[in-house]
Amino acid sequence: MGRFITETGTASTVIREISGTYTAVVNDRILADTSSGAFTITLPLNSSLLVNDTIQIIDVTSNFATAAVTLARNGSLIQGATEDLDLDLNGASITLMYSGVTYGWIIIGT
Fold first, then answer.
1. Phi, psi dihedrals of residue 44, rounded to the nearest 5°
2. CA dihedral 60, 83, 73, 8 (to 10 degrees)
3. Can you give the pLDDT of all 110 residues of the chain as single tens digits?
4. What is the C-alpha end-to-end distance of the chain, expressed in Å?
5. DSSP letter string over 44-102?
6. Closest CA to 69 of 87, 56, 83
7. Cα torsion angle, 87, 88, 93, 99, sign
8. Is the pTM of this model over 0.90?
């Protein structure tokens, strides 16, 4: 059935403040701080994912246009593409859900 984040969070949702390279886990709500520079967040390994697994990334310092976060796909597609995703819009908040092998991670909220 998958694991997902609700609007108010769930008991399994983990809020993490990140300011450097990081490997995400399912249900992470990441407060990304790029004030010291750009970095990469690697999505969970494809083989560990269930449909509906969710991750949220928030530009907590409104600095993505200056120092982007790159989402490394780690074997899964992102929006059906075989490319990593650069988050480069100040103040961005993005929620990704794993939809299965056909499309991989899809953006379900901004």
1. -60, 150
2. 40
3. 455 555 444 446 789 999 999 999 999 999 999 999 999 999 999 888 999 999 999 999 999 999 999 999 999 999 999 999 999 999 999 999 999 999 999 999 87
4. 23
5. PPGGG--TT-EEEEEETTS-TTTSPEEEE-TTS-BTTBSS-EEE-STT-EEEEEE--TT
6. 87
7. negative
8. no
